[in-house]
Write a structure and sequence with these properties.
Growth Hormone, Chain: A; elongated
């Protein structure tokens, strides 16, 4: 029913029936693999972002960047979120969501590689923050589109509420690997490599996502 122009009462009733027919209940949603795959994918960026945010000043200090500059640089991470929704909409409308999610995971991996091998001054740190922010902004828009597109609108609140658990768990676990990495090795590279591994796993998982068919699910109950 998105972008649809309703001209009379019959069309409106048909459109509402279609929304009802295509909308999953929470119980039905939990039985689909797409819910769990999408949840796992949505868990990784918050995990990485939380870890980076908690330890960003120390990570930059190890690269000889002053705290004053670091405070300015980390604020740039949110900058792509202002204009990415306009760009992402064009991409999401043109390509399947699973490819968009896969690309964002590759971008996260590349940004973390860049952090390990190339971030050594203010300019390279800014490049890292903007590129990583660009990747996570696209991923956020893609996930916001995925839930209503895949599971309908009627029960979107309860479905999104259940999916929020993945993001909360990811955020809660994010800082721990970075802290352990530094305490045990004196470097954050081990944690960053671990995050790259998680991102690669979700990159692979994203190719297994497709819009579930509710009628098939109902037939199996």
């Amino acid at each position: 029913m998105e972008n649809e122009v309703i001209t009379d009462k019959t069309e409106l009733e048909n459109a509402l029936k279609r929304v009802e027919r295509e909308s999953f209940t929470l119980q039905e949603t939990l039985r689909t693999k797409e819910f769990w795959l999408a949840g796992i994918i949505s868990m990784i960026p918050p995990m990485v972002s939380t870890g980076l945010t908690f330890h960003f000043f120390k990570i930059m200090e190890l690269r000889s960047i002053a705290n004053e500059l670091t405070a300015m640089i980390i604020g740039l991470m949110a900058f792509p979120a202002f204009f990415i929704p306009f760009i992402a909409k064009v991409v999401i409308d043109k390509y399947p969501l699973k490819y968009t999610l896969a690309v964002t995971m590759i971008m996260v991996i590349l940004s973390l590689l860049f952090l390990i091998f190339f971030v050594s001054n203010q300019i390279t740190a800014i490049i890292f923050v903007l590129f990583y922010g660009f990747a996570t902004a696209i991923q956020n828009v893609s996930m916001n589109v995925l839930w209503p597109n895949y599971f309908g609108r009627n029960n979107l609140g309860s479905i999104r509420g259940a999916a929020t658990v993945f993001m909360v768990v990811g955020s809660a676990l994010g800082a721990l690997p970075f802290g352990l990495s530094y305490d045990l090795t004196g470097s954050y590279n081990t944690a960053i490599i671990a995050m790259m591994t998680f991102a690669f796993i979700t990159f692979v998982l994203s190719f297994f996502i497709k819009k579930p068919e509710r009628k098939l699910l109902n037939n199996s109950i």
